[in-house]
């Protein structure tokens, strides 16, 4: 991801026509350039209500400057289009929750992401209880954080609030 030659068309998941439509939309947002602020994406009506959009955009922002380049956008579209299997979706969802990218989801990262999803539906105390119980139930090696394998077991347990939805 991130190289300028990428098309996001691997395995034919995103049709060329659809990719071209998305690229035109990107270029309109970029006002003729090839750079769009993440905040501009977040303001789009179809994305504005989704609490996970800021994190997904952050993952697509390869140089972490608060902007997406056309190549990064195209790569992200391709990646999202290739989430075929439960394992693919679990791996991507793990990346959304792993805020510092260290390969583990800590209780603080789980709490921060769940706070985005739950909004004010849970008090701070309730959320802390949910996080503590979740980590205790799925941290099979007792290190106080969730590995990708442990996180997959959490997703497999069926809590729909933890699943990634970009719709």
UniProtKB/TrEMBL annotation:
Organism superkingdom: Eukaryota
A molecular function GO annotation: calcium ion binding
Gene3D superfamilies (UniProt xref): EF-hand (1.10.238.10)
Keywords: Calcium, Metal-binding, Repeat
EF-hand domain span: 55-83, 85-120, 126-161
Transmembrane segments: none
The keyword Metal-binding is annotated on this UniProt entry: yes
Protein's name in the database: EF-hand domain-containing protein
